[in-house]
Specification:
The protein is α/β, with parallel strands linked by helices. The protein has 16 helices and 11 strands. The chain is globular, with a radius of gyration of 21 Å.
Length: about 475
């Protein structure tokens, strides 16, 4: 069975295949492979098949089934659902059951999607390998000795292994695009404010954005048509009068005329030779498609990692203060006073990386250091935004690697946080600037692991960005390759 989302949707809507059959096939795949990969924290087999049967009955009576029409979809486990726990892969929230659905979940259900499970992640989305999950180990389907990337590693691995038709992830500094690159799939981080964050458990509130992970660009466009749009429940959601939502599928196969693509030469030099070669070959593909390649300088991008790990940790410090052993989550036992409740609950409930980031953020916000660190980081963030604004006056999109390397082995970077943080060196800037960015497969390293190409476009230009990505995809077959485990 073809697990591409749009093709499967079309087959179900045309009654050439039953949604219940498609969902059952996905669960067969999960049962066959997920013991080796570990994508899912929880699955909803009985509920999913029951919902699929109801949808099949609806289709048989001629009623509209929605634009996802029974496609099996996975959700990263930091998005609230009334069914199952919302754990954020943390002991702190291991048994938390949300009283409401996230807006994106409601939109998926309204579109006829069948949610098959919730996927593993780095705890509270803090990490680049999914090794920080307190609940589960997730492996890369291309090589189970390697990480799937993070923090949306479970979603990317599930899509790559055919254990869902598409998945949602969240991206604070590359957490959709980096695992998409490592797992050889497509990952889109929309413009900040384009997709509602209501019901997303917050990490960095000015950086977090929900987006799709899919097997191809067309499926990413389909998913964007479902989840994009203004949400009154989210104060950071942009009004559609200010930024109208376009149909991302309508012109997906229509190339952009007089396309100008910018490259940033100094950025590519930090990548492995395999990555540099794949990016150079991708540029040649675009040249053959008639694109003009221009070189630009973005002088402040070199500060992206430093700025991110001040801004993101400061926001995390505030967002995670609510987990105090009283209001939410894990609560320590055998305690004598409130201070013990707070200290012992947080000590036991949070993992090492989460504690590290809370402490970094709290320090940056503390008296005497606020101006020196946090305020200065905000000023440099504005300079980075300025680099993007200046760049987009000269081009339609920016082309750089998604990651400096292919997927690394388990444990390779866990003892060196700085080395781990640099895994996101190419992805962080798009979050700081709030612009949309996509990772698409563009080759393989000598180790037979996937390499991702990253494209970034002006704010709210997802429709054009997807068309540019589709131009490359239509002339290559990297996205058609499946992991050897399947």
């Amino acid at each position: 069975m073809d697990c591409n989302c749009k093709k499967l949707r079309d087959e179900i809507a045309a009654e050439r295949i039953k949604s219940a059959e498609a969902v059952a096939a996905v669960f067969d795949t999960i049962e066959k492979y997920d013991s080796k990969i570990g994508s899912y924290i929880s699955t909803f087999k009985e509920q999913a098949i029951a919902n699929a049967k109801q949808l099949d009955e609806k289709i048989s009576t001629g009623k509209s089934a929605g634009i996802l029409a029974g496609a099996p979809i996975a959700i990263k486990d930091n998005m609230c659902t009334t069914f199952g726990a919302t754990s954020c892969a943390s002991k702190m929230l291991e048994n938390f059951h949300a009283p409401y659905n996230a807006t994106v979940v409601e939109k998926l259900l309204s579109a006829g999607a069948i949610i098959v499970g919730k996927t593993n992640m780095d705890e509270f989305a803090m990490g680049s390998s999914t090794e920080n999950s307190a609940l589960l180990k997730t492996a890369n389907p291309w090589n189970t000795q390697c990480v799937p990337g993070g923090s949306s590693g479970g979603s990317a691995a599930a899509v790559a292994a055919g254990m869902c038709a598409a998945a949602l992830g969240s991206d604070t500094g590359g957490s959709i695009r980096q695992p998409a690159s490592f797992c050889g799939v497509v990952g889109l981080k929309p413009t900040y404010g384009r997709v509602s964050r209501f019901g997303l458990v917050a990490f960095g509130s000015s950086l977090d954005q929900i987006g799709p992970i899919t097997q191809n660009v067309t499926d990413a466009a389909l998913m964007m048509n479902v989840i994009a749009g203004h949400d009154p429940a989210d104060s950071t959601s942009v009004d559609e009068k200010t930024a109208p939502v376009c149909d991302c599928l309508e012109k997906i196969d229509k190339p952009i005329e007089k396309l100008k693509i910018a490259v940033v030469p100094q950025l590519n030099t930090g990548a492995d030779s395999d990555v540099q070669k794949a990016i150079s070959e991708a540029i040649e593909v675009y040249k053959k498609l008639g694109a003009e390649i221009v070189e630009i300088d973005m002088p402040h991008l070199e500060y992206s990692v430093a700025v991110y790990y001040i801004v993101a940790t400061a926001e995390a410090s505030g967002n995670l203060a609510r987990y105090d052993g009283v209001h939410y989550g894990h609560r320590a036992e055998n305690i004598e006073n409130y201070i013990d409740v707070y200290c012992k609950s947080r000590a036991a409930g949070f993992g090492k990386e989460v504690k590290r980031r809370i402490m970094l953020g709290t320090y940056a916000l503390s008296s005497g250091y606020y101006d020196a660190y946090y305020l200065k980081a905000l000023k440099v963030r504005n300079l980075i935004r300025g680099d993007f604004l200046a760049a987009f006056e000269k081009c339609d999109c920016i082309l750089i690697p998604t990651c400096p390397t292919t997927a690394f082995k388990f444990g390779e970077k866990m003892d060196d946080p700085l080395k781990m943080y640099l895994s996101d060196v190419y992805t962080i800037a798009a979050n700081l600037a709030g612009v949309p960015a996509i990772s698409i497969p563009c080759g393989f390293g000598k180790n037979d692991l996937p390499i991702g190409l990253q494209l970034m476009a002006p704010a709210f230009g997802e429709d054009r960005l997807l068309r540019i990505a589709r131009m490359f995809e239509s002339k290559t077959d990297w996205h058609k390759r499946r992991p050897p485990i399947i």
